[in-house]
Amino acid sequence: MPEVGIILGSESDLPKVKECFEIFELFNVDFEIIISSAHRSPEATMGWAAAASDRGIKVIIAVAGGAAHLPGVVASRTTLPVIGVPIETKISGGLDSLLSIAQMPSGIPVAAMAVGKAGGANAALFAVSILSLANPAYAEKLVEYRKEMADSIRRTNERLSRAGHKKYIRKLEA
Ligand code: RP5
Fold first, then answer.
1. In a mutational test of the pocket of ligand 1, which residue from 7, 12, 14 has the highest number of ligand atoms less than 8 Å from its CB?
2. pTM, two decimal places
3. pLDDT value at position 145?
4. Between 20 and 30 A from 102 (CA), which of 56, 73, 95, 108?
5. Residue 117 C-alpha to ligand 1 middle, in angstroms?
């Protein structure tokens, strides 16, 4: 049964958050995905959000760009934690989306992730953190994941020190 519900304001958002799906696959977390807009299909959006908890969903990720009110609208229909992912836009690089999500007025909170690739990935990692409160196996996997990141930096430093910075930069630029 899916533990995470992912709602996207548009089909065009789907490829922008592929890192989110990859992290869930890495952590073996079941998720459901729906495309539904706060303004183009408001009834479907609100119905999905209202019934999410009854389907066993524990965390919601809401992805939107521009006037990104989707996470807030979803949060108004559920008490589940809602994580908002702002999508990059042509007009301001996604600052509009970020502020729409981060600047929720007091009463209905939404967690705001970063714009860009990091936003999708961190939304999934944040959801895993929330799920780990009830499932210690996820906490163990998060520790492993972080250890691998630190190991990867250590390996980079070893290569850098072997090659010297000039050669290393030339290789990076090639
Ligand atoms: C928002 O409008 C969506 O989340 C998307 O980021 C943005 C543009 O949607 P499309 O015009 O590409 O469908 O609702």
1. 12
2. 0.95
3. 98
4. 56
5. 17
How far apart, in whole angstroms, are the C-alpha atoms of residue 81 and residue 57? 10
The whole-angstrom separation of Cα 171 and Cα 159 is 11
Instruction: Give me the pLDDT at residue 139, please.
Output: 98
pLDDT more than 70, % of the chain: 100
Computed over every residue of the chain, the mean pLDDT equals: 98
Distance between Cα 13 and ligand 1 center (Å): 7
**Ligand 1 pocket test target in 7, 11, 13, 41 with most atoms within 8 Å of CB:** 13
CA 78 to chain centroid, in Å, comes to 18
* Angle (nearest 5°) at CA 8 between 125 and 24: 25
